[in-house]
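Format notes (please read before filing issues)

Several people have asked whether sequences and structure tokens are stored in separate files. They are not. Every record keeps both together, in the order shown below: the sequence lines, then the token lines. Line labels are part of the format and must not be stripped during preprocessing.
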Amino acid sequence: MMSAVLIVMSAGCSSEGEDINNTEGIITTFHLLNENGEETTTFKSGENIFFDLEIVNNCDTMMVFTSENQNNIVIQQGISKDGADLFFPLSNEDLFSVYDKKGEKIGNPYTGLYCNTSFMKVIEPHSNYHARCNWKETGEGFWQPDVTFPFCKLGSMEDLPVGEYYISFRIKCRNNAKDPKSQFKTLSFLYQFAVVE
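Then the structure lines:
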């Protein structure tokens, strides 16, 4: 059986100038889920696949989940000096990308990012959020019930043939939005899975 491999990020909560460290203030994890909502690395042919990025905010301050080029807007909306930012990559083609075992890109589960013109999601203190999208459509139109911010999905991807695959993507994170010395760190995710008969 294939194992899921990913790099998990945790960030410290709050002190002036503090950068990401190994405390459990903000944690991001990636999972693949089956149609029953169970985490797995093996899917039956024709089964839908759900991509789930979970963000846990254990801090006492809110955090913002946004795109990098909207950072100024986020700061102007009153994020506290010790609030944290989680950024998607600059390339829309990178997030949740699926590759075959030869490294050929198969595609992404979504049609686009930020289609509703909203460029940020506030995650309240001591709460979690799931950025989720499914491989095959589960409803009609852009706003499908199983797709959450920042994804939008129109239409369905074709079933993946039987074989081995992996998902590879990166996100950026920093702990202090208003501190110019706060450095971004890149979190890399690599998740292997298989489609079987």
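For reference, the curators noted about this record: The chain is about 5% helix and 40% strand. Residues 71-76 form the longest helix (6 residues).
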